[in-house]
Design brief:
Length: 375
């Protein structure tokens, strides 16, 4: 979990921004940001709020008593009762009633109120704006996403922990992949090992596309049988105590052909080019172009690298900095991100995608991922 010390540091930075913008009160409704600033994680589809007064206390509104919280006060709403039918609507109404009471007790004069407009349901917006009808509204989402780009030590520690769990799964996948097995067979083996390593039933998302299905597809594993000669691309990005690593490896179901080995060499060299290039101040789009141009210099995979070359990691599995052609992001110290060059072709029976996770330090890249890249 995030540390309360880290949450306190981030909350202080956030309060500084509130002061600069003249915001008197904030109501956060994205559970990721509630966790980011309070240390309380609820990865469920139930309302979670953090009410932050610019000069005053912070109040966490949640459906369970938290194991830890950096908030000054915790108010728990009722999410289950034998006295009323359980539904999301009913639970949301209970949460809205509690939020209304918390806001009614706010002594702060509110001239400007901060909201997350991309994550605020209308039911709760009515409660907030009904309590402060004359207050100006400010969307604090953009600042929070900007603040999240550079990771604190407790965040990096969780991402590194996620990477280790993924790598434990890859060690099992190597043994499970062979002609005659199915994508689902491999998934079951990997999932069990990742959960065992993590020590709890973490949220698990991944791409399990084998053979030619991997050229333009991903997503859930199917009952598709692994064929001799297939390349099996597996891309894993679970949530480990709220934070995501994201690793991809490619496994050969049979002895790799010369062409498959050449494709692997292209992807590995592209990864090396990114490692040489990325430093503080480098533009993400320049990295994407360098990798795309290199891969396109090989005729048999030219034009096959159709997706991003990487992205940031954190509370979301994909966030800033985005390594894409249209990105305006610049690499900065503290960025944690994935780089994932790839090439695909029917003649390869799929493709090769390789991915590592990094922290950008003052003196260069720190590699968080150490599972072998070989097919």
């Amino acid at each position: 979990m995030l540390t309360l010390e880290g949450c306190g540091t981030r909350l202080a930075k956030f309060r500084g921004e509130l002061e600069k913008q003249g915001i008197d009160l904030v109501v956060l409704s994205n559970y990721r940001h509630v966790y980011y600033l309070s240390g309380h994680l609820r990865e469920v589809e139930l309302p979670q709020f953090l009410v932050i007064a610019s000069e005053g206390k912070t109040v966490l509104v949640t459906d369970v008593q938290p194991a830890q919280s950096a908030a000054d006060e915790v108010v728990v709403y009722e999410a289950y009762s034998v006295d009323w039918p359980i539904s999301y609507v009913g639970i949301a109404q209970k949460a809205a009633q509690v939020l209304q009471g918390v806001l009614a007790a706010t002594a702060t004069t509110v001239r400007r109120i901060g909201l997350e407009k991309d994550r605020l349901a209308w039911l709760f917006a009515e409660v907030i704006l009904g309590r402060f009808p004359a207050a100006g509204q400010v969307d604090v989402g953009p600042f929070l996403y900007k603040l999240r780009k550079s990771k604190d030590p407790d965040e990096v520690s969780l991402i590194a922990g996620c990477v280790k769990a993924i790598e434990a799964g890859y060690a099992v996948a190597q043994q499970a992949i062979h002609p005659g097995a199915t994508e689902l067979d491999v998934f079951k083996e990997m999932h069990g090992e990742i959960v065992r390593h993590a020590g709890y039933n973490l949220k698990f998302e991944a791409d399990f596309a084998c053979g030619v299905r991997a050229i333009k597809e991903g997503g859930t594993p199917l009952c598709r049988e692994i064929l001799p000669g297939d390349l099996y691309i597996i891309d894993i990005y679970p949530s480990y105590h709220g934070y995501h690593g994201d690793l991809c490896r490619t496994f050969a179901a049979s002895k790799p052909t010369d062409l498959q080995m050449k494709a692997w060499e292209i992807s590995r060299n592209a990864l090396g080019l990114a490692e040489e290039m990325i430093r503080p101040g480098v533009r993400a789009r320049d990295v994407w172009k360098r990798l795309r141009d290199y891969i396109d210099s090989f005729e048999f995979v030219r034009g096959s690298f159709w997706h991003h070359a990487g992205h940031g990691l954190g509370l979301d599995p994909q966030e800033a900095p985005w390594i894409i052609s249209g990105s305006d992001h610049v690499f900065e110290v503290g960025d944690v991100f994935a780089v994932e060059p790839a090439c695909y072709s029917v003649v390869l029976q799929g493709g090769v995608r390789l991915e590592r996770n990094y922290v950008l330090r003052e003196d260069g890249l720190e590699n968080l991922s150490h599972f072998p890249l070989e097919l």
